[in-house]
Structures are given as structure tokens and as C-alpha cells.
Amino acid sequence: MRRDHWKVRNDRLDPETDFAEIVRNLVTHEFPWDTIQALSFALFRTYAVPGIGRLLDETGAFADDVQKRYDDTALLLEPPGLVGFDHPDARTAIRRINQMHRSYDIPNHEMRYVLSTFVVVPKRWMDAYGKRPFTAHEVAAVVRYYQTLGRHLGITDIPEGFEEFAELMDSYEAEHFAFDEGARRVADVTLALVTSFYPRPARRAVEAFSRSLMDEPLLRAFRYDAPHPAVVRACRAALRLRGRLLRFFPPRRRPKLVEDFSWVRSYPDGYDLSRLGTFPAGCPVPRPPAEPTRSDAASNDVGRSA
User: Fold this and answer.
1) Residue 195: which residues within 8 A CB-CB, separation 6 or more?
2) So what's the pLDDT on residue 302?
């Protein structure tokens, strides 16, 4: 197999009809480590939206067992890409996700934003740190894949293309990123989980490395201290170097699945998709009180000035 086997394979497929296969090739063969890192970072960004971060804190899922929450999220998001949206496993996973989401009064605009991070963050990650960027075919397939997932999750007003997804994500973050104590707690336990994947002597370095990959608005929203600029440059340069070195590696023949990663640790004896996730009581569970967004605050300031 040539080193560019999966790129050539994907470019021979039709992103309008073969999008699940293209995504599967990207996730399990071409970029398995990068994809799980990028999607984890995408979800981490969503905690900086107070409505999302506060709700996750209120559910207690992160405080009770953040490892299980991490594992369940990754395992439930995986099946549609592996077996297609019509497969029973994919339907079970999507049903489980919907059951959890519909137990809370989550507005469509938050769901759209989370969906946009799944589309935009991995592409930007590959552009910056991958062994190569996505091709136009692959970007189109990723968009179609998440549009399909979004429809299965009942999300409306889904963007039409990548640029629209990017505009949605960037503008939403500019308006909604803000500090919230509950969201900060969720971010803290998530970072602590990430550092626990590594030997204890390396954990402070891993935490600094993680913050080095955060942009300034994200750091500000969590009130995290920015690492020294030299540390940021070194960490990002190390990831870029890794990507360049991977260009010389042979293509992955055996797919690498979520359960193959050592940091997915909750189910050493296997798992039942229908039992993953949380099972909240009540429908919907009362949502934590909302805090004003930046636009709301600006409107109130105008009213007080008048």
C-alpha cells in the first residue's frame, strides 16, 4: 500500500453518497489519534458556553465519574461512522444520545453550535497539526456526515457547507463564551482526566501542553492562565513536527477504534450500547437558570443609559 492510500481511496469516493465510508477511513485509518484529540478538544470548547457548561455541571455526571462520561461520549459517537446510519448499532447509539438530550430543555441553537464544532475543529486541527490537511472531497464528506447526524438528532437550521459551519461556530463563540463557575468545574475535571492518562511525573507538563493549545478566548472564558509564549510555541511546534514525521509512515491497515485507545478504560469486558450514558429522571429535567449573554448585557446597558 502506498503512503497516500487512504487519501487516494477517499478521493475516488463520492462525498454525497459515500460520506460515512470516507469519514470511517479518516477516523480509523488516516487520523485516528488526531481525530479523537480534535473531537475531545471540540467538546471541551463547548463547556465555555455557560448554558452548556453549567448544565453539564448540574447533572453531576462529570463530578461522579468523568472517565465514564468521556468513554460513553466517544463510544456513542463512533457507530454511525463505522457501520453507517442505518445499521442497528448506529440507531441504538443515536437513540441513546437523543434520550439523554431530550431529558433536558436544550435549545436548538446550542445543539447547532456543538454540531458545528465537530465539523470545524477537526479540519482546523489537521490543517495545523495533521500529517496533511483534509482534501476538498473529505471536507465535503465530513459536512454531509454531520448534517446527517444532526438531522437524526433533531437539529434544525443546519448549515449548508463548511464555511457556514465555521461562521456559525466563530460567531457563536464570540457572543457566548463567558466565565461560569459550573463550567469551570467541568473544564477542570476534564483536564484532570486528560492528565491522568499519563504517568504522574508528566501530568503537570501535560496540563500545560493542553492549555498551550487553547486560544485566548477559550482561556479567558475559563480564566485559565496562558502558558509562557515560548511554551506555547514549543508545544505547537512539537505537534507540527509529529505530523510531518507521520508523512513517512506506512498507511494503517487495521482500523483503530475508540476502544483500542488505552485511555478508554471503563469497559475492559465490553459494553452494551443501549446502556451507555446517563439515565436522568424526569422529562425534561429542569434546566439551570440562564445567565445573560453578552448581547443581553449590552441591551441592558443601553436601557440603563436611556
Assistant:
1) 203, 204, 206, 207, 210
2) 36
Q: Which among 60, 21, 5, 90 is positioned nearest to 186, based on CA atoms? A: 60
pLDDT digits (tens, 9 = 90+) for 7-66: 999 999 999 999 999 999 999 999 999 999 999 999 999 999 999 999 999 988 777 789
Residue for grid cell 475516488: 12
Predicted model pTM: 0.89
- What confidence tens digit (pLDDT) does each residue in 182-218 have? 999 999 999 999 999 999 999 999 999 999 999 999 9
Ramachandran angles phi, psi of 285, nearest 5°: -70, 135
| Locus of grid cell 454511525 | 80
Q: How far is CA 33 from CA 82, 166, 227, 244, 256, in A?
A: 16, 23, 24, 15, 9
Residue 140: HSE in the Cβ half-sphere, 13 Å Cα cutoff: 11
The number of angstroms, rounded, from the C-alpha of 128 to the middle of its chain's C-alpha atoms is 17
**Of the candidates 120, 94, 109, the residue with the CA atom closest to the CA atom of residue 157:** 109
